[in-house]
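WARN retry 2 of 3 for item q-0093 after timeout on previous attempt; input resubmitted unchanged.
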Amino acid sequence: MGNDVDKELSKKYCPRFAQIAVKMKYVTPEQVQLALAEQLDDNLENRSHRLIGRILLDKGWMKPEHIEIVLNELFKQDRDCQ
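OK item q-0093 returned
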């Protein structure tokens, strides 16, 4: 049973897109906070949900090639977290 709990916790705390993007220095924590606020505002106003990467790209804060690198790292880490 302990293993199941640990597995679930590790899934919950695996690095997410924005954390990886900040760690790789593609964006700043402040830019992520603004993007998260925009995402939340979109959701509260019943506008289409946008992923953080899309918002960061739309703002011009990330380049498409950086998003691809972060996604590759995210998928790699997600596999390691399972």
